[in-house]
Amino acid sequence: MEPEKPPVGTLAERPDAQLVCSVGEGDEEALWELYRRYSTMLLGLARRILGNTADAEEVLQEVFLQLWKQADRYRERRSSVSTWLGLITRSRSIDRLRSRKVVERTADRAGHESATHTSPEGGSNVLQNQRRELLSEALGCLPPEQREVVELAYFAGWTQRRIAEHTGAPLGTVKTRTLLAMKKLRTELLDRMEDLL
Amino acid sequence: MNRDRMADDDRAARVVERLFASLEEGGAPPPASEDPAEQALLREYTEVLGLLAWSSRPQAPSPAVAESIRREIAGEQVAERVPPRPMRPPARRLESPPPSSPRWLAALAAVLALAVLGLSGSLVRLAGEQERALADLGSRLERTTERLDQWSGAADRLVALEERLALVTGPAVEVCALRPTDEATGRAAAARGVLYVADDHQRWYLALEGLPAAPEGAVYHVWFLAGGRAVSAGDLELRAGRGDLMAHTMPDAVQAVFVTVESASDLLAPSGPRVLYGDEAMTIL
């Protein structure tokens, strides 16, 4: 954990990193503030990877319990809190996908999802939709083959070797496409990074 | 390209390589770099990657999730507050053995020494057996892992082939023939190709044949013409004059597909000669 700063302002005004610090000290309210800020985004991510809401909700629960127990593992120097939580969610979702814990829930999928697939409310909804639009725009700027390698690596958890096998492109080409995609995304998003995080 | 630019490119390549390696290893942000400039870049790319999560449609969790987390946390706190188990009463000291004669003591010492020797021998034998078993298991694991890698690679190739086959033979697949253009010279003038587009207008497969090897330092590049603009679809690798390319996304309103010979891979627009072109799609029912 980075050096602590004294908490300032109300819970809703406190920056993410301070909240994580407080969670590490056993502050449950700080955990719920982070849950309020990120649970919808993280559930959306887990659902996209796993394909069903029931498993995604189990992952979300695991992620916040991990945050509760291991908040001291967060390193502010390495990433923002939202990125850290996103990477934990992605990793747990892909682990679950690989370990075949995902049982076919096709029968109840439609009903369950129509009942629970709601958007977050209020300002958070607007902000999240803005972020999503910006990200979609940035991804839309990528040539299809570059977008494909990044999405397969991030959302499907495929190794670059597997992507190469799947697409029939040499491994070097996959790596080049990944680099070009990341450079373009960085160029597209860099100016807006502070607003997005 | 000047030296600074090359150094920046090298740094970016290193950083992205590290980032994706950490993604494959478990997904935690990669460890910090000792070079401040590289660390700053690593952090930026980590955030760019992290932002991809926001491209998913947000979904509010059901109240049951928060409730489960609350229960787990409360359970943990209760467990922490459970009072320590009462200490067991101290064990009664064994009564002193009856006084014994020196002969009895010598016999006991001899028996104990033999027992220790026997035990040591057994332990050495067991340790040796365990070592052999570990070595055997290690080599079997290595062989199995190698086979699994081979099978996994073959399975991936099979899946890719099945996917191509399913697309080509799918219902309402659109087919567009690519023919040599006036700019195609030599053997390229006899090349041909077919683009298959699935009914979702996202998945596509392009198969080409008869193309000569690209000139030294150049590659064949596939483009879509969409909305009057050329959109890159990727480099084409040739094997014995044949090449194919498949992807799961396609720009909207594609009017044509064409192949150029390019000497750079990061192109925003085609710059080399156009060797194959196709703009007439037919639907096969």
3D structure, described in words:
The complex is a heterodimer of chains A (197) and B (285). Helix content of chain A is 72%, strand content 0%. Chain A is an all-alpha fold. Chain A has two domains: 118 residues, Rna Polymerase Sigma Factor, Chain: A (Orthogonal Bundle); 76 residues, Arc Repressor Mutant, subunit A, CATH 1.10.10.10. About 12% of the residues of chain A have low confidence. With 285 residues, chain B is α+β, with helices and mostly antiparallel strands. Chain B contains four helices and nine strands. In chain B, helix 1 crosses helix 2. Classes of the chains: A mainly alpha (197), B alpha+beta (285).
The ordered H/E elements of chain B are: HHHHEEEEEEEEE
Shape call of chain B: elongated
Average pLDDT across residues of chain B? 79
User: What's the total number of strands of chain A?
Assistant: 0
- Here the CATH topology of the largest domain in chain B equals Immunoglobulin-like
CATH-defined topology of the largest domain in chain A: Rna Polymerase Sigma Factor, Chain: A
Counting structural domains of chain B, the number is: 3
Name of the top-level CATH class of the largest domain in chain A: Mainly Alpha
Mean pLDDT of chain A: 81
Please give the share of residues in helix of chain B.
40-55%
Structural class of chain A: mainly alpha
Q: Give the assembly state of these chains.
A: heterodimer
Tally of helical segments of chain B: 4
Poorly predicted parts of chain A: 101-123
Largest sheet of chain B: 9 strands, antiparallel
Query: From the alpha-carbon coordinates, what is the Rg of chain A to the nearest angstrom?
Result: 18 Å
| Helical/strand content category of chain B | alpha+beta
Instruction: Specify the CATH class of the largest domain in chain B.
Output: Mainly Beta
